[in-house]
Amino acid sequence: MSVANSIKISFKGSKGNQFGRETYVTMIPFNKLESFFKVFPEVQRKLSKPRVKSIAKYILDGIDKKRLTFLSAITVTCKNEIQYNEDESTIDVDISTVFSINDGQHRSEAIKLAIATLKEAIEGSSDHNEREKLTEKLNILENMTIPVVIFTKIDQKGEQQLFHDLNLLAGKPNKSIALNFDSSDLYSTLAKDLAKNNEQLLRLNIQTEKTQIRGNNNQIMVLSTLRNMLCYIITGANKDKDSKLNIENYNDFHNTLDEILNLLFDELPEDASNRDKYIIGTAATLQGIGKYLNEVVYNQNNVDWQSEIKKLGTIDWSHSSSVWEGYGGSYIPEKNKFVFTGTSAGINGVYEALKNKLNK
Q: What are the domain boundaries of the chain?
């Protein structure tokens, strides 16, 4: 980046053409974003502060090498004229030029927040060694670059259309597919590992590409349900707020859960995935079972927790069973099914029913 005669500023970049419109691509250092980029409310959605904080944490985790971190290109439109120097491969604009962000305002704000967070940590630290480490991280972060795609000669209506096309037309993967490709969430990694290797799950079959199982499909559950069930087994809740599962203990939990799932589905009916016959094949039931397993394996003083799991084989899992009466739903004779009033009600209902039935 260079300044010539205090009038022009240049960025290394390349020039292309998209549908008859000149398009440019460059790299901007993280610490220069605030100088050039601006958000115009009329062509953008309202900023979500929680989302900005989440991305900032993602960036800082990447600096700490806790995870692989990627930031995709920011898309902007240039409000001024652009000159491209073919010989130098530079994008030259007036120093007063403003770039309007069309896609990436949350990434841009998160980068600024991550930098500000490190600066604040440096100022607040009285430990010399810690300040040096934080300063090193800050220097690395400030000098990172993010790709920027620049469109030109677009009016406000065109910018609104660009925002719409970039944000609303992109296909969003369903949850099970997203989890199948997510290596940052240890629970999804655990679910994928067990779905591929656990003896009983291989027999019962996990659906990894859809969010729902319909009709007479004999698969026991979708990948996202397995992921949530595992979280319930480990934490007793649908979120691991205390990071009980981490890199250090991953293998231990994997081995224990492998044993738990084999014991569980060995005790449940062999045709457990028959949804017309049993309530087992619903997301609520499976997560409720997970919550109950957390109780007997991790919370109760059961030396022989394996025997507690085997007691699940004594339960009548049919829809018409009196076990479920008064626990989060009701039996509908016309459908010959027990129907939960909601997922949360079903999870807690199954948990309470099992606890009251088996812990007498």
A: 2-168, 175-358
pLDDT digits (tens, 9 = 90+) for 82-91: 889 998 999 8
The Cα 112–Cα 30 span in angstroms is 8
* 151, two tokens: 């469109």
Q: Which of 256, 258, 263, 266 is nearest to 298 (CA)?
A: 256
What is the spatial distance between Cα 142 and Cα 319, in angstroms, rounded to a whole number? Answer: 59
The model carries a pTM of 0.56
Contact by Cβ (8 Å): 232, 287: yes
The residue written with tokens 């440096």 in the block is: 122
CA dihedral (99, 104, 108, 109) in degrees, to 10, reads 110
Amino acid at 350: V
Angle at 271 between CA 270 and CA 276, to 5 degrees: 150
Q: What is the pLDDT of residues 280-323, one digit of tens each?
A: 989 999 999 999 999 999 887 767 888 999 999 999 999 999 99
**Pairing state between β 8-18 and 74-78:** unpaired
Structure tokens at 53: 């904080």
How long a stretch of residues is the chain? 360
Q: How far apart are CA 244 and CA 241, in angstroms?
A: 8
Measured CA to CA, the distance from residue 58 to residue 61 in angstroms comes to 5
